[in-house]
Design brief:
This protein has seven helices and eleven strands. It is an alpha/beta fold and 277 residues long. Helix 1 packs across helix 4 and helix 2 packs parallel to helix 3. It is globular, with a radius of gyration of 20 Å.
Length: 277
Amino acid sequence: MNILVSNDDGIFAQGMRTLATALAAAEHQVTVVCPDRERSATGHGLTMHKPIRAEMVEGVFPPTVQAWSCSGTPADCVKLALGALVDQPPDVVISGINHGPNLGTDVLYSGTVSAAMEGAMEGIPAIAVSLTSFSHQTFTPAAHFICDLLADTTLFPMAKPMLLNVNVPPLETADIKGVTLTRQGIRRYFDLFEKRLDPRGKTYYWLAGEAIEEVEDPLATQRWPEDVRQALAAIPTDVQAINDRYISVTPLQYNLTAVTDLDSLAAWHPRSGVSSV
């Protein structure tokens, strides 16, 4: 396959280099376009008011891998790659392996997911892959899983392009229980802004805090029809799957329409004009 690899941890991140090397060893044609520095939690931001620069990187990847360092965001990297750096569209866009989880509501902030989503928005199958630990450094099980996933002829080539959000528990392969299809869960954070002083005596704030374990099932807050609710209840959330030591695979989409709320708003008839009050 012709594969475009990106990330949000930067061009020298170990997780991405492990993935690109494994894909090249599996005889895929690999092109890497990644930020020139860490751009985590940038969401789907794009660079609009300054130039984007890209430089080729040599000596870091296997000789068959063409790599670029980009001054932009993760979404910029994929957009620039598709629009200017690669000769033909890739068969799949893969973002990661991220250092840390992208579970539940993390996907709304994630540069990793946004890079993959940029590919999906262009009609290209995409995968976002994350290792659910910031301290664990063994990325090989996640890289091997992605190689196996691409080799699965029941999935690739995809009949309908989609984005798969893959989260891998920080375990050796033998300790991972398996792979399960999941739905997006809820992962809340206890946010804390630490107030500090810089060397000149001026105040600044540093976002700290930590993730709180999943405290409720998203089904509790969604007004799904009962038959849909029952079907979804049989599918674990991504947070639950990781806690149970499974690799989580969640299909995501960029259409955020709250479909079930359209019915509840049906009695509201918006006026054509805007009040001047």
